[in-house]
Write a structure and sequence with these properties.
- It is a single chain.
- The protein is α+β, with helices and mostly antiparallel strands and 239 residues long.
- It has two domains: 56 residues; 178 residues, Immunoglobulin-like (Sandwich).
- It is 22% helix and 37% strand.
- The chain has two helices and 16 strands.
- The strands form three sheets. Strands 1, 6, 7, 8, 9, 14, 15 and 16 form an eight-stranded mixed β-sheet that branches.
- Strand 6 and strand 7 form a beta hairpin.
- The longest helix is centred in the first third of the chain and has 26 residues.
- It is globular, with a radius of gyration of 21 Å.
- This is Carbohydrate-binding domain-containing protein.
Length: 239
Amino acid sequence: MWGNFRACEAGLALRLRRFGWTLAMKIRNQKSAMKMESTKLLLVAALSLVTVCANASETIAISPTSRAALLDGQCGNDEWEVATRIELPAQASIHVMHDSEYFYLCAKAKEDDHTVLDLYIENAQTGHLHRFHLSAQMGESVLTEQGWSESAPWDLDGFAGFWVPYAGLEDPGNRSGPRFARGTHRQIQISRNKFPGITWNIMIGVSGVTHEGERAEFLYPEGALDSDASTWRQFSFSE
């Protein structure tokens, strides 16, 4: 936990120095009142980044289960009932649990949402960041110096899940306008052998949902960055 927090602190210090230098160059010739407002901006930015670091220091306990999850696109009053639940805006939620072999996660939203999942996990042994994307297809990619590698759809190495189901065509006569089902939940199970340790560093993105009349994406932890694992959250297995 503290190692992750210190890494975040280091990143915070660097970002504040860059922000402060840029701000200083802009306000050098400003009047006193404007300088005061600019100083306030710097303080607000600092507090925001400190909040991200504080969030990263917390650990979420993954609930154990004796029942393997059925990947059927529904996380109701069934084996998911024991899962650790994380509330998001727009009536969306994340549910996590584990047994001796697998880590299970479900992203749940409203009946009229498509619900797309992006799950990010840091490999503590290699330092590599992995992304699992579940929409109309499933795939895994790894962050490299050139950015996220191209996802390999359906190359399911140590994981499985329930993607957004195909629901026919808008215009069957011309075979155009693919439609995808709404109201199903996004589920993934990952072999615990795929990543080492009983604590995983994780970030979760849920999109394909409607919030206040617009399409939205929600991140957990809020404000986390997909390329900066120090802003993610630690999730711990019970054994």
